Amino acid sequence: MRRLILALCLALAAGPLAAQTGAPEDAPKDGGDLREGADLLEEGARRLLRGLLSEMEPALDEMGRAFTEMRPVLEDLAEMIGDIRNYHAPEKLPNGDIILRRKMPEPALPDLPEGEEIEI
After folding, report:
1. Region label for 13, one of left (φ > 0), alpha (ψ between -120 and 50) or beta (otherwise)
2. What are the sequence ranges of the domains in the chain?
3. CA-closest candidate to residue 14, choices 36, 55, 54
4. Where in the sequence is the signal peptide annotated (predicted)?
5. From the centroid of its chain, how far is CA 44?
6. Distances from the Cα of 120 to the Cαs of 110, 117, in angstroms?
């Protein structure tokens, strides 16, 4: 996690360095040293992010395989549940069980014979 935060800080710091418009008085007129420093910082951030990605790649591959294996079960569950709007928010019971209560459908209005109106 520290590496990720460091990489983000370096990447964010590289942007303003490259965006500076004025050159300091002791810098060469062509800005070569500043540009070279910004390029080195950018390259360092790139390498750090690549290293983090290569470390995370096995875990991401394993997660992808797990989701692939779970897909049929999740599709069956989604088919059983139907529209999630038919349920109240999940509740956690004191024993640790989690329940999803189905909303009760509202009673249908009675059909009125033709010609009758409801007084309001």
Report:
1. alpha
2. 2-18+35-99
3. 36
4. 1-19
5. 26
6. 16, 9
- How far apart, in whole angstroms, are the C-alpha atoms of residue 85 and residue 102? 9
Asked whether the predicted pLDDT for residue 93 surpasses 90, the reply is yes
Q: Give the closest residue to 86 by CA, choosing from 94, 74, 97, 78.
A: 78
Element (H, E) at 91: strand 91-92
Residue 62 structure tokens: 């394993």
Position of tokens 């942007």? 15
pTM score above 0.90: no
CB 7 within 8 A of CB 49: yes
Helices (H), the chain: 2-19, 32-81
What pLDDT, in 10s, does the model give residues 36-82?
A: 888 889 999 999 999 998 899 999 899 999 989 999 998 998 888 88
> Could you tell me the two tokens for 102?
């189905």
Alpha carbon distance 105, 82 (integer Å): 14
Cβ(111)–Cβ(105) below 8 Å: no
